[in-house]
Every structure is written in structure tokens, then in C-alpha cells.
Amino acid sequence: MRTITVAFQHAADKAAEKGNLTAISWIHVSALVLQAMRIAIPALIVAVSVGTSVVHNLLNSIPDVVTNGLNIAGGMIVVVGYAMVINMMRAGYLMPFFYLGFVTAAFTDFNLVALGVIGVVMAVLYIQLSPKYNRVAGAAASGPAKNDLDNELD
């Protein structure tokens, strides 16, 4: 199925070259539906053929040490994914916030809403306190050249 969906990505590239955003959206949704069917159909066949009680008993027979390890590994995959995105953005200056968020999430019982609010507050504080984003009114823009937005703001 993953090999088949590669063709969808090539089709999305062609639609992007033409600027057809509607086609891109439909192509991506179609590929996601196919990927979902890759999991849903075998799961449905197993659940129907052997019964949900057998599947439930099988899942409950997995030792806690294995399920806890899988939960930890799943959390680490998310963390590594975010780190890779920050790295690809070449935004190393954001890494302290990444580490702070990781430590906060690991050592507190905050839920995702609380962690999201903390992240938004940290972002607002960073932007307000960073000289990169703040200029005194009427001061010249820092950087190699002023763009139209700088001219509008001045």
C-alpha cells in the first residue's frame, strides 16, 4: 500500500505545478484513506473471525513491562519527530524551548491543554522580549535591505 501511495504523491506534485489546490487536497485525502484501509481491513477480519473477546484477552495477556515500554517508545518517537522538524527548519535557537517542554512534560502531570498554553505563553514572551522582533518606532530596520512591509511600518 505504501508503494501505491507513492504514485499519489507524484500526482500531487503534478497538481502543485499546475497550482490546483483542490486536486492536491483530494489526492492526499485519498492516499490517507488507502493507508487507513491497510490497517482497518485486516483488523476487522481478525476481530470478526476470532471474536473480540479473543482479541481482548490476547491484548490483556501482554505483560505490563512490554506495554509500558511501548508507551515510552511511542512518546520518544513524537519527541524525536519534533526535534527533527526544528533541526530541518534550522531553528537551533528554539532547542532550549524544546528541551524545557520535554522536561516539563516528563516530570509533571500536566495534560496537553496545559502544555499547549505554556507553549503559547513562552512563544509570546520570546517574541516580546527578543530584539529580533522588536524595533523602536521610527528606528531603521535591521538587516540588509528594507522590504515593502518595513516601508509601510515606518
Description:
This protein has 154 residues and is mainly alpha-helical. The protein has a domain at 1-61. 77% of the residues lie in helices and 0% in strands.
- DSSP strand count: 0
Mean pLDDT: 83
Biggest sheet descriptor: none
Question: What share of the residues lie within helices?
Answer: over 70%
What series of H and E elements makes up the topology? HHHHHHH
SS-based class:
mainly alpha
Radius of gyration, taken over Cα atoms and rounded to an integer in Å: 24 Å
Number of helical segments with 4 or more residues: 7
β-strand amount: under 5%
Coarse morphology = flat
Contiguous runs where pLDDT drops below 50 for at least 5 residues: none
Termini separation: 55 Å
Q: What attributes does this structure have?
A:
154 residues; mainly alpha
Compile the SSE list and pairings.
Layout lengths: L1 H17 L2 H30 L1 H9 L3 H25 L6 H13 L4 H18 L18 H6 L1
Helix pairs in contact: 1-2, 2-3
Describe the structure in brief.
The protein has helices spanning 2-18, 21-50, 52-60, 64-88, 95-107, 112-129, 148-153. The protein is an all-alpha fold and 154 residues long.
